Each structure stands twice: as structure tokens, then as C-alpha cells.
Amino acid sequence: MTNANGEAVGIDLGTTYSAIAFVDETGRPQTLNNAEGEKVTPSVVLFEESQVVVGKEALKAIATDAPRIAQCAKRELGHRLFGKTFGGKQYPPEVIQAWVLQKLVRDASQQLGGVNRAVITVPAYFDEVRRKATQDAGLIAGLEVLDIINEPTAAAIAFGAEHGFLRADGTSSKLQRILVYDLGGGTFDVTVMEIHGSEFTTLATDGDVQLGGFDWDQRLVNYAVERFTKAHEPDPRQDANALGRLWRECEDAKRSLSAREKTFIGCEYRGNAMRIEITRPQFQDLTRDLLDRTAFTTRQTLRASGLQWADIDRVLLIGGSTRMPAVRDLLHQLSGKHPDVSVSPDEAVAHGAALRASLICAQAAGTPPAFTIKNVNSHSLGVVATDPETKRPRTGVLIPRNTKLPAEARRLFKTQKANQRSILVQIVEGESADPNACSQIGRCVVRNLPPDLPAATPIDIAFRYEENGRLQIRVRVAGTKAKLHHELTRENSLTPEEISMWRAIVQKGGRSL
Ligand code: ADP
Ligand code: MG
Question: Which residues have C-beta atoms less than 6 Å from ligand 1?
Fold first, then answer.
């Protein structure tokens, strides 16, 4: 296999499944099979004595070694440590993600030769902290992260490529407005985009980082346990391995119900076994409120984009959970259109990321861009200010959500006393007026202000969101040319030293130094 871009790949680092793709010499994106011969790799890590095992083997161990398995680390990005302990040790979620990336890249390298540059995707709804954590996971896995792009944008790019909107001259392409509904294993998001010629513009995006196929599985698990415990004791959920086995049964039953009207869940614990029948309508009743939550977010996002269903040309379904017939029916009902399933829901995101990687490589080599991406921020960026009336802290919004990126906001802070040498700015992301209900990005400390500044000297701080949703900060003292040193101390994020340490550990193939 030949990769048109040297070793740059696109990676869909999913909550439950991940995929990796490259652009071949004909310019078409191709998914790379993993060493097990599959297009998607479970984002699951098994902690063995001195090393880790990733993917299908790790997922299988959920029935026998559940306490040694890390799943859904993506949901915990932004936390300092992953909730579960392995061998008495807790790991940062980005390190667990790095092991998944390493497995994908290693398997891809078998086919492409060395792979060391990648575009990695994130849910559009990810905040700055989680984007940084994803980028760090890439670094720890030994990758140069060319860009972080949004999953729905990647899907739309793959869709655009499939339907020929990406021709270099951009002719004959008419304006297309699409709604991307992405329901994966652990996250849900919905994005309204405009494709005009070769330009991809996000109009609005929203989502839920705690909603996905996993929650549908959970409903089946609860249902099965309810039926089981009516006849037998004890509750299989109290044993992690029994729960792991049951969960796999339920996930399997869920997949069956996408294809047929009824199926059975096998539940066996302490010598008691039961075959529990479940029909599709029953399953849909058990999970209706979850589906309703996605409908609510979908309507809200459409409203935020300023469009109506009649303006939407296509509804794109992405993510494995959109295979559930109830999802297709819902979107049909909401939009009055048949959802587009022309790009594979498992591969579209990785394909779009690969096309993006290929574009970056081509641009570096001097070729004009085949397409451009315009994004919006998914969360309002603010600083913690004091309410002059109540004297209580409140969020001062600098860049409201759904602003086109890159976006910059400047704010003048004033020194409070004469000869003040430093200023502290607390940065948050979120929609609440209460800063404590927002996501804490961190503190920015501006040090070494020039001496002898009078009280109330304005300090000009510019916050800039880059296209990829990452934050840059610039500080100036009004009236001077002094370049000021500032440090952004992040709340829940690895330091450069910690990143190098983990990078060395992961490269060595171990789990500790
Ligand atoms: P993520 O990107 O969040 O990892 P994916 O897009 O890979 O997720 O989707 C994985 C989810 O899709 C899992 O919850 C899985 O159970 C679900 N899924 C996959 N195939 C089917 C199917 N045929 N019917 C219902 N759900 C499915
Ligand atoms: Mg996904």
C-alpha cells in the first residue's frame, strides 16, 4: 500500500471504537485494518502485569478480568486521573487514550511503513481542556499532531469527497446545508454545516458528552437484571466479571435488534441461567427518553443555526448507534427527509481526518488547498469577574458560543494598586453565569509587570481561539511596548514534563518506568 502523504494519517479516536485511515495515491481515503483484520478497534485497554493490551483482546477480557480494563477514557478527558485504579495506580485519561492511539498507529505502520503524523478528531462539543488532552494523548503516543478537527466536520468532508464537492476547481458545486447527527458509543453531537464549493462552514453545534450507545446498553442491562432477580438471587451486577459478561450480551442484543424484531439476552450467574426475550418495541420503550434527549438537542441546534428543516439539504447519520432503526425514524420524522447513509457511519470520520491530513501535507508542499474548514466555538469563553452589586463571582463572557473561528476578544484589566507586579486571570468555558458551574480552563498569571505602574493601569489581554478550538493568550500593558511573560496554569492537564515522562513510558511499551 502506498500513502500519498508519506506517513500522515487520520484517526477517529472514539469513546468505544476507533479507526485510522489514509489517503491513497489516487486521492481516495481508505480505512486501514488493524492487526486483527478489522476496520474498527475497541478503545479498550487491559492492564497486564507489566504491559497493556489494547483492542479486541482487551474487550474480551471484560468477561473475566473486568477490574483490569479501562473503557470510555474519552469520557473522562479533562479530569486529572481516570476514575478506576489498576494495580494500585491511577492513570491520566490521556495516557489511556495514548495507548489506544499507539495500537492504531503500530498496526497501520505494518502496512504503510512508519506513521508519525496524524490528524485526530474530537466531538464538536469538546471544550478546550478536552481538546488539549486529546492533543497530548497524540504526543504521548509519539505522534506529531497536525491538527485536531471536529468529528462532524470530518464526516462532512468525507461526504463531500464521496459526492465530488471537493474537485480542485470547485465548479458545479452548489450550496449544500447539512445536518450531521452523530450518535456513537459514549457521546452524542449534532452540527449544522454549510458546504459551499470547497468551503466547509459550521453554523452551529451542540451535544452531550455523556450520552451514547453505552446508555442504551445500560437500559438493557437493568432490564435483564430486573427479570433475572425476580427469579434468582443474587444480583449479577455485584460481580464485575458477571456484569461485564452481561453487558456484552446486552450490547450484542442491541445490535441484533437493529436487524430483527426480537432477540434474547443470556444471563447466567452463580449456576442460575436465564434466556430473556426482548422485542424491538420493548427496547424502544426502555430507551425512548434517551432518544428524546437527542431530538431536543437536534431541534435546538437547528434553531441556533438560524435555519429550518426546509433549508437542510441532507441529514447525515454518523456513529454506530445510528444503525438503530429508531434513530433513522426519528430523523425522518423530524426532518421529513430520508437520512443519508451513503458514507459508512464507522469510517466517515476517519476518512475525513485522512483527507484533512492529506490537505495539510499538500499545503506544506505548496499545493493550493482543495477545501477549507470554518469552525465555530462550541462553548462560550469567559473570565471570572466580580459582580459590582452582589460582590459575588460571575462569568464575564468574552467569546460567545457559536462564534466563527478564529475569534479574538480583548479585555482591559486594571491594576488595583500602585506598583502591582502581577495579575491573575481565571479562565472558564461554559454557558452558566456562575463560574463554578463552568469548565475551569485554568489560571493565567501575568508576571513581571513594569515597576512603578500607577493603580488602575490598563492591562490588555487578548484571548484567541484558533480554528482548532485551542486557546492562545497575549498580554500587553497599554502605552508600553513591554512584552510580558504569562503562564497559563491549567486546572486538570498534564505539564510538559509529565507528557515527556509518559511519552517515554508508552514508547517503551510498558505501563510504568
Ligand atoms: P464512538 O465513536 O463513540 O466510539 P461508534 O461510532 O464507533 O462510537 O459507535 C459505537 C456504538 O455503536 C456502540 O455503542 C455500539 O454498540 C453501537 N452500534 C454499533 N453497531 C450497532 C448496531 N448495528 N445497532 C445498534 N448499535 C450499534
Ligand atoms: Mg465516533
Answer: 14-17, 184-187, 212-214, 251, 254-255, 258, 319-321, 323-324, 346
Q: Is 299 inside a domain boundary?
A: no
Give the per-residue pLDDT at 459.
Answer: 82
Atom of ligand 1 nearest to the CA of 19: 7
Write out pLDDT tens, residues 212-252.
999 999 999 999 999 999 999 899 999 989 999 999 999 99
Task: Give the residue whose CA is nearest to atom 19 of ligand 1.
Answer: 320
Mean pLDDT, rounded, for 452-470: 83
Can you give the pLDDT at residue 444? 82
Domain boundary among 252, 270, 286: 286
pLDDT tens-digit series, residues 25-36: 888 999 999 999
Q: What is the CA radius of gyration of the chain?
A: 24
Residue with cell 494523548: 137
CATH code for the domain of 415? 2.60.34.10
Reported confidence tier of residue 5, pLDDT bands at 50, 70, 90: low
How far is ligand 1, taken at its centre, from the CA of residue 319, in Å? 6
Taking residues 464-491, report their average pLDDT.
75
Q: Is residue 361 assigned to a domain?
A: no
Is 323 a domain residue? Answer: no
Strand runs labelled E in 375-438: 381-386, 393-399, 407-414, 423-429
Catalytic residue among 7, 76, 136, 151: 151
- Locus of grid cell 479530569: 79
How many structural domains are present in the chain? 2
- Give distance in angstroms: CA of 329 to centre of ligand 2: 20
pLDDT of 171 reads 42
Active-site hit among 76, 147, 182, 194: 182
- What range does the domain containing 220 cover? 213-286
Ligand nearest to the CA of 350: 2
Rounded to the nearest whole angstrom, what is the distance from the C-alpha of residue 318 to the centroid of ligand 2? 7
189 part of the active site: no
CA distances from 34 to 108, 115, 320, 491 (A): 7, 14, 18, 36
Report the residue among 150, 251, 254 best suited for mutation to probe ligand 1: largest number of ligand atoms under 8 A from its CB: 254
C-alpha torsion sign, points 74, 79, 85, 87 = positive
**Interatomic CA distance for residues 331 and 315, integer angstroms:** 8
Q: What is the mean pLDDT of the chain?
A: 88
The verdict on whether 12 is a catalytic residue reads yes
- 89 assigned to active site: no
Nearest 10 degrees: CA dihedral of 499, 502, 506, 510? 180
Our answer to whether residue 49 is catalytic in this structure is: no
Give the predicted TM-score (pTM) of the model: 0.85
Question: What element of type H or E holds 268?
Answer: strand 262-269
Residue 170 pLDDT = 41
Q: Ligand 1 pocket test: pick from 15, 16, 97, 100 the residue with the most ligand atoms within 8 Å of its Cβ.
A: 16
Q: Is 173 inside a domain boundary? A: no
